[in-house]
Structure formats: structure tokens, C-alpha cells
Amino acid sequence: MSKAVFFDRDGVLNADTNYPHLPEHIQWIPGVFEAVKAANEAGYKVFVITNQAGVGRGLYTESHVNALHRWMREEFKKHGAAIDDFAYCPHHPTEGQGIYRVECECRKPKPGMLRELIARHGVNAAESLLIGDRDSDLQAAKAAHIQGCLFTGGDLAEFVTALL
Fold it and tell me: Which end of the chain is less crowded, N or C, counting CB atoms within 10 A of the terminal residue's CB?
């Protein structure tokens, strides 16, 4: 079983700027590439988890999310860092439209995305950690028996290196 670092996306890897869903919307957090590379070099798998209620609200599509994640993976690769997988929740229990208006197990603070990645990649939750910028991230980590770490800004590489 492997250990992993789970990164929340908006607010941790990139600035949380009103439903970013295109590459031109992404404003990287300082130290982001070095942080992921440090996790890679320390033997951790790296995953990104993100609530994407903008899909459920009809602001953009799941295709936009998947395309952005492919682009992000390539940007990290250019910097010698690797993201192993992404998971996202397109649902919203009250604002979602159509099939997206549902109370699900994947929307943080519920741990569905974490549990899915843990199962798919053979992750040891007890040796893993989640870096998030909201209480809902930490609640999801706790429910999945993963150490939750609150990132409040600054240089992400410094924050991650201190944890590893």
C-alpha cells in the first residue's frame, strides 16, 4: 500500500477565483510545482480532489473540468512534478440542475472522493494526508481517516515540506 498527499484544488493549488474552469483562469499558488515535486520525491502519490458545483449549477460542463485537469497535469509535468489522479464532485444538493441536484457521498465534507482514490490506487490512509483550505476539506479527511492539514496561504512548498 502506498502513501499519498491529497490536495484540494481551488484555494490550495490555484487561487479560488469564481469557478475557474479554463486554463486562462488558473492563477497558481506560490510554490505549487515545488510542493507537488517534494511530495513525489518523498515517495507519496499525489491526488487532487475538488468540489465542482459550477457543473451542477450549469456554469460549465464536466468536459471543461476534465480538459482543465489534463492541462494541469501537463503543466506539472513541465515542472518535473506528477499528479497521479484527479477526482471531482459535480453535484450540489440545492443549487444543482437536473441530475446534478443530489445529496451525494462525493461532495466534501463527505469522504467519497477520498475513498474512491484510496480504493483505486491502494492507498494507506493512515500514512497519508490531505491539504485543504476549508473546514469541509478537513472534515472529509477525518471521515476517511486521513490527517487533514489546513493551508491558509503563503508558499505551498514551504507548507508541504514542513509536513513531509
Answer: N
